Amino acid sequence: MPGPPWLILPTYDEAENIEQAVAGARAALAAAAPEGFRILVVDDASPDGTGVIADRLAAAHPEVEVLHRPGREGLGPAYLAGFAHALDRDAGFVFEMDADLSHDPADLPRLLDAVRAGAGLALGSRYARGGGIADWGAARRAVSRGGSWYARRVLRVDVRDLTGGFKCFRAEVLRAIDLPTVRSHGYAFQVELTYRTLCAGFPVVEVPIVFRDRRRGRSKMSWRIAVEATWLVPALRHSARGAVQRAGGHAQAARPARRSDVG
To answer: 238: which residues sit within 8 A by CB, 6+ positions away?
Structure first.
């Protein structure tokens, strides 16, 4: 019997969004996992008081807890800290979700269903049939879609939304892909985790979602993060496979992902 699902919510200056994000996630996961679930807010010492709000939510709701980190280190390290915390506490499934409400918490049950049905990773996909993006301008759409196309071509895999960050992993996948050796952040971090999952032989299912731009607060995305991906992605073809082999995974040629059109 697998352990409970854990949702990891990295935050930095999300005081305007964190309460609504946690409330939506609690409602969705209570229906999808009535046997129990956990929500972990990983806060990087947000100067706007996000951590204080998260502590208040944890005091009010026993399924919510907060991991305070001493300073801002980036999205990738925050997720890695959250993964380690959840895996040490026997998580059966682990979610990634943006805390700015760009990802709809109501989609969490669909991702969990896909993993329970056999996927190693369920990826909320903007570019699978039925998915989409609302509220973005042409330039940002081009950067996102171009980044996914570039990574797909370089890595020779058939996952349409390689840069997507709305995910649900089976815990055994995270244990198999040598998380301590992951060094990338931003776009490249999301590409690396999905590619390592494929290299370890686990199926990836793309579940269509609609991604919405944040309504409150300031985006943390920068051109530096996008540029990082252009030089890190080619190196992943070698480093990711080696990391999976060292971790004891059954590394193999990455195979095309199965796609889901679950509504």
So the answer is: none
Q: What is the DSSP letter of 256?
A: P
8 Å CB contact between 177 and 243: yes
The answer to whether 179 and 79 have CB atoms below 8 angstroms apart is: no
Chain segment 144-198, per-residue pLDDT in tens: 777 778 888 889 999 999 989 999 999 999 999 999 999 887 778 999 999 999 9
Q: Please, what are the domains in the chain?
A: 5-259 (3.90.550.10)
User: Distance (Å, rounded) from C-alpha 251 to C-alpha 119?
Assistant: 17
Contacts of 231 (CB under 8 A, 6+ apart): none
Where in 182-259 does DSSP place strands (E)?
A: 204-208, 210-212, 258-259
